[in-house]
Specification:
The complex is a heterodimer.
Chain A lengths: L3 E11 L2 E12 L3 E6 L5 H8 L7 E6 L2 E3 L4 H6 L2 E4 L11 H7 L5 H15 L14 H13 L5 E5 L7 H16 L3 E6 L2 H7 L2 E6 L2 E7 L5 H9 L17 E10 L9 E9 L3 E5 L6 H9 L9 E3 L2 E2 L5 H6 L2 E4 L3 H5 L6 H5 L10 E2 L2 E2 L1 H14 L16 H13 L5 E5 L7 H16 L3 E5 L3 H7 L2 E6 L2 E2 L3 E2 L5 H8 L4
Parallel strand pairs in A: 3-8, 3-9, 6-7, 7-8, 13-20, 13-21, 16-19, 19-20
Antiparallel strand pairs in A: 1-2, 1-4, 4-5, 9-10, 11-12, 11-14, 14-15, 17-18, 21-22, 21-23
Chain B lengths: L1 E5 L5 H25 L4 H9 L6 H26 L7 H18 L8 H27 L3 H21 L34 H18 L1 H11 L1 H7 L3 H28 L10 H11 L4 H25 L5 H16 L1 H4 E5 L5
Antiparallel strand pairs in B: 1-2
Helix pairs in contact in B: 1-2, 1-13, 2-12, 3-7, 3-10, 3-11, 3-12, 4-5, 4-6, 4-10, 4-11, 5-6, 5-10, 7-8, 7-10, 7-12, 8-9, 11-12, 11-13, 12-13
The chains are: A alpha/beta, B mainly alpha.
Chain lengths: ~500, ~350
């Protein structure tokens, strides 16, 4: 049976921003639809309206000509709309089956049969009785998908599903999605990754600043045309020049180990690598394989044996981040809102988080506010942060501007080494470009970068050498030219 | 129609308005309770909140009660601002009082200008020692400071009980559970003839000024603020987390200890069983009612001090149990937490559409 989903004149206004501006769209089953847009374009809001999480100010939703009143997520479920969120909503310590039975009203026995059937049909193999924390990200996502399929949905919405998947897992997911579509489930696929849209979808709707800017069949589009629609301007492509190979070693990690007491953390085993001046070492991997721990060990949030890290001919393994900054290291952590910056604090206060001796931010234990403000103004203008008010709380900066502020704050000391972890995660294309350009510039100034990232395209674009982290172990270090994303994908999955 | 809308940003005005709203709602609810109990609400509230402070003596009593509350709450705000949940100020007060009382007893029947400073210092050190227990257990053994500091309150009360009944009890005291009277040199001077308000109030005022300076002007204050928002950020910035946890606990303990000194070396002048009507716990309410801001805490301590006095007057004149004081303290906290909702949401009145 054909399913028809219609969004009619939906508007949602937040204070200071129109998230959805009179959006009308129509979907029919049998096709896979892409909803494409930068962060903040309004696609998440639209999807949340479809799944009952947000109630629109105006507009209506029709499913097969019936006007739906979606006041809560359970209304969406009742109306056969299933949704797989970007972040998993699973209880890590419960078993797969327990997770699935939680929001189901079926009997244990019949539910189990139903799940077995679904898994057989789509070739999923997941042990239902092991705790979710033992699953890979791809498997967890399958659990979320099964949770939707149990209710035999008419519509399945996938929100940025590939951000945690390997190349191989992604192609598996795409196969499944195509199969669902053939069986009559209407698929709406939300993403900002253009390549995926071209690979998977039949029709694409592009959103920008809350407005629907284009709806078109995929065969009439290409990556460039979509990118331009998404950003609203022509993007220049940036490319890194081949670095002059230097043999001047800057940092050397020797037999570094980290054993965590926390079962949700990954142990690091026997990490060895070195980075030369002017070089960018990329570290690839699926999130949760020890990247966060590696970042903390390198930044000094976790201290290690003194001799395990040699930087500029000093042993610094036992120093904390502030002490390491004095040796001209800088750090940009993954979590912008909970670690790298404090949203409730003002811009200039956030700048003071990078406190190094020559900054004179704090003299004899007293705050030197003028110095901090002066410094903040410089960062804002040097790094194109789009505001002129350093008294603004940083929660009012967009993700891109906040990241520019953070990178600027870290780079203003002109450090010899910048260690960054997913620096462009969740940013829009314009901001990503800016950050990438900045990183390339650093290398050109003969400074070094360790780039820990889950975005393979980014790594291939910026790195001179690449290694892959899997379950806390690093693969051998490869020259970037010899590496393809397929090869990385295989290593990320744990094969040799 | 009424609609509830999320605020983009909690405004500063609302931040200080909600405590006032909480107090107002407490008065309304309190009046209602009195009404249900069969009293005239306005008269009862008058006995509770106005009569006690209508004269010179009453006002001195108000300051007397507000002094320890303010002092402890200032100390606690160091902890609370930096994400450390010290709720054992009552124990730190008691232990500070024990140590300073012990020192005061050493100088029994001796006089000298040097005695009082030593006694005061001993109280601060006692409070610090006692606060260092949850702090050290937290930093080195990962225990929960809420549980440890709370349980230590009861330990300190038992130690005090043992001392005033046993080894330290007054030999000529007919077995009353109290120590000898301290010598005059070991007592905080009274400020006015015939009133009980004593020099301890200057300790509280000094704490207010110092804390304001530390919070807003020093690197320590900045680090506390950062740690209060996010421990992950504090770690990333390279702050020495353990050192700071211990430091804020010590400051907090010292303030509570000083409050203990004020209680025993002020009007009473001896150690006995009940040196504090739970000032250490009530000060938690004061700290939050005052928004962890030094000036806010001054006002909050005055407001909450009235509930102690009001409860006594109400008991005397209206035969209402004095525990109504605690009911009022509870209501203040309750309404404060409830009206904090307004920090993040606002109520919009929308005219009905025709």
């Amino acid at each position: 049976m054909n399913t028809n989903l219609k969004i009619s004149n939906v508007t949602k206004i937040y204070p200071g921003c129109v998230a959805n501006d009179n959006v009308s769209l129509e979907f029919n089953s049998g096709k896979i639809y892409a909803l494409l847009g930068e962060n903040g374009a309004g696609k998440s809001t639209l999807v949340k309206i479809l799944s009952g999480v947000i109630i629109p100010d105006e507009g209506k939703i029709y499913l097969n000509e019936n006007n739906l009143n979606l006041n809560s997520p359970s209304d969406a479920k009742k109306n056969d709309i299933g949704m797989v969120f970007q972040h998993f909503n699973l209880f890590e310590t419960l078993s797969v089956f327990e997770n699935l039975i939680i929001d189901s009203d079926e009997q244990r026995e019949s539910l189990r049969e139903k799940i077995d059937l679904i898994m057989k049909k789509y070739n999923f193999s997941i042990d239902l009785d092991i705790p979710v924390l033992n699953l890979s990200a791809g498997q967890k996502q399958k659990v979320e998908i099964i949770r939707c399929l149990i209710r035999s949905p008419k519509v399945l919405i996938m929100d940025e599903p590939t951000s945690v998947l390997t190349e191989q897992e992604t192609s598996e997911l795409f196969l499944s999605l195509k199969k669902f579509s053939e069986e009559g489930i209407l698929i709406i696929y939300i993403t900002h990754k253009l390549k995926e849209v071209m690979q998977l979808c039949d029709e694409v709707a592009v959103m920008r600043r809350g407005k629907l800017v284009s709806v078109n069949e995929i065969k009439n589009e290409n990556i460039e045309s979509l990118a331009n629609k998404m950003v609203g301007q022509n993007l220049k492509t940036i490319k890194k020049k081949k670095a002059k190979t230097s043999s001047d070693q800057l940092i050397k990690i020797t037999n570094l180990n980290f054993t965590s007491e926390d079962p949700f953390e990954t142990n690091l085993m026997d990490i060895n690598f070195s980075v030369n001046r002017g070089e960018c070492l990329g570290i690839a991997g699926i999130s949760g394989n020890g990247q966060s721990e590696l970042f903390q060990v390198l930044s000094g949030e976790i201290i290690s044996e003194k001799k395990s890290i040699e930087f500029n001919n000093n042993y610094i393994g036992d120093l904390n981040p502030q002490e390491r900054r004095e040796y001209l290291m800088a750090f940009s952590p993954e979590d912008r809102l909970e670690q790298a910056a404090i949203p409730q604090m003002k811009i200039f206060e956030n700048v003071a988080l990078n406190n190094f001796k020559s900054s004179n931010f704090f003299n004899n234990g007293l705050i030197n506010e003028n110095k901090i403000k002066e410094h903040s103004k410089k960062i804002i203008s040097d790094f194109n942060v789009n505001t002129d008010n350093i008294e603004l709380k940083s929660q009012f900066l967009s993700g891109g501007n906040l990241q520019k502020l953070i990178i600027g704050r870290e780079l203003i000391t002109s450090p010899d080494l910048l260690i960054c972890f997913n620096p462009t995660w969740g940013l829009d294309v314009g901001a990503i470009n800016y950050i990438h350009e900045t990183l390339i510039k650093i290398n050109e100034q003969n400074k070094s970068i360790i780039l820990i990232s889950t975005d393979t395209d980014e790594l291939l674009k910026l790195s001179d050498k690449i290694s892959v982290i899997h379950k806390g172990k690093l693969s051998k270090i490869m020259n970037a030219e010899e590496v393809t994303s397929e090869k990385l994908g295989i290593l990320m999955g744990g094969a040799n | 129609m009424i609609k509830i809308v999320k605020r983009d940003q909690p405004s500063r005005a609302i931040f200080f308005f909600t405590p006032v709203l909480a107090i107002f709602l407490t008065l309304v609810a309190g009046g209602l309770i009195f009404f249900i109990l069969g009293f005239k609400p306005f008269e009862a509230l008058k006995f509770f909140f106005i009569v006690p402070i209508a004269d010179k003596y009453g006002f001195s009593e108000l300051l007397l009660k507000a002094t320890p509350l303010c002092l402890i709450a200032i100390g606690l705000s160091f902890c609370f601002k930096s994400n450390n949940w010290n709720i054992g100020a009552e124990g730190q007060l008691t232990f500070g009082a024990i140590v300073s009382g012990g020192v005061a007893l050493l100088f029994y029947e001796q006089e000298g200008f040097y005695i009082l400073p030593i006694v005061i210092l001993a109280g601060a050190i006692g409070g610090m020692l006692y606060a260092s227990i949850p702090a050290i257990l937290k930093t080195y053994f990962n225990t929960n400071e809420i549980l440890v500091s709370l349980m230590l309150v009861y330990v300190s009360k038992l130690i005090l009980d043992y001392l005033v009944v046993g080894p330290w009890s007054n030999p000529e005291g007919f077995n009353f559970p109290e120590t000898r009277q301290f010598s005059d040199s070991a007592k905080l001077p009274l400020l006015f003839e015939g009133l009980r308000i004593h020099a301890g109030i200057f300790l509280a005022l000094a704490a207010v000024v110092i804390s304001w300076f530390v919070f807003y002007k020093t690197y320590l204050g900045f680090q506390m603020k950062v740690s209060g928002f996010s421990l992950k950020t504090a770690k990333y910035a390279g702050y020495k987390g353990k050192k700071m946890i211990i430091l804020v606990f010590l400051i907090s303990g010292a303030c509570a200890g000083l409050a203990g000194v004020g209680e025993i070396t002020g009007p009473i002048g001896q150690l006995h069983r009940e040196i504090s009507p739970d000032y250490g716990f009530t000060a938690i309410i004061v700290a939050f009612l005052g928004r962890l801001h030094p000036v806010g805490i001054i006002f909050a301590s005055l407001v909450v001090a009235i509930t102690y006095l009001g409860a006594e007057t109400a008991q005397i004149f209206m035969q209402i149990p004095k525990y109504t004081g605690q009911v009022f303290q509870g209501m203040i906290l309750f309404f404060l937490l409830a009206s904090d909702y307004l920090l993040f949401f606002k109520i919009k009145f929308i005219g009905s559409k025709k």
